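Is this the right way to post structure tokens for a design question? Let me know if I should format differently. Anyway, here goes:
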């Protein structure tokens, strides 16, 4: 992974300087006394197979095309298909299990015993589903899970309601969302500890098409 140095120049403007891994001295020498911030970059491949730098300053995220020395974008048509499976930008509370399976922790997404999506989680889910729409994706499977505290029927009802709440956000971007509520039937961790129960309270999102 390469590093990128952001040099703040004037009111709101910035310049990017590429650096070798772990060595930012060359970029620092080009700041001419201005403040600079070092951030780590990653690569995202868009639907056309073109590469982009993606990086986060801690306050905002940025995307910029990767260019050849002659100014042409770095593109490979052979990578233009199924790019949701490529390296994805981050979406806050939405975490990736693999290229097509994602989840949000229920404790960070909903109040206790509720299926009302919290504002921060709604913002992250909005960015995530917008990204899927822009990638040409059309269908997701959304599954709610709980821990084993409470009654089985209550847990099933809550898990389904939470899946439906996430599906409503997906629907706002034209995605078809199938929902399931599995209650406590498929834990990913032990229900014998506080941390384990927290891991089991989740909503999973699978990109189907």
């Amino acid at each position: 992974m390469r590093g990128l140095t952001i040099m703040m120049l004037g009111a709101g403007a910035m310049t990017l300087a590429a650096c070798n891994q772990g060595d930012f001295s060359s970029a620092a020498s080009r700041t001419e006394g201005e403040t600079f911030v070092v951030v780590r970059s990653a690569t995202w491949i868009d639907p056309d197979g073109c590469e982009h730098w993606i990086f986060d300053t801690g306050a905002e995220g940025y995307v910029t095309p990767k260019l050849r020395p002659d100014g042409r974008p770095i593109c490979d048509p052979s990578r233009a298909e199924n790019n949701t499976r490529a390296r994805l930008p981050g979406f806050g509370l939405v975490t990736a299990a693999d290229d097509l399976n994602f989840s949000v922790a229920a404790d960070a997404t909903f109040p206790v015993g509720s299926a009302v999506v919290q504002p921060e989680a709604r913002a992250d889910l909005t960015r995530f589903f917008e990204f899927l729409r822009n990638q040409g994706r059309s269908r997701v499977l959304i599954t709610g899970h709980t821990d084993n505290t409470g009654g089985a029927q209550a847990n099933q009802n809550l898990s389904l309601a939470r899946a439906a709440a996430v599906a409503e956000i997906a629907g706002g971007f034209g995605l078809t969302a199938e929902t399931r509520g599995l209650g406590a039937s498929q834990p990913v961790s032990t229900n014998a500890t506080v941390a384990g129960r927290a891991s089991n309270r989740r909503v999973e999102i699978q990109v189907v098409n």
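Format looks fine. Someone answered above. Worth noting: Residues 1-15, 81-87 have pLDDT under 50 and may be disordered. The two ends are 30 Å apart (CA to CA).
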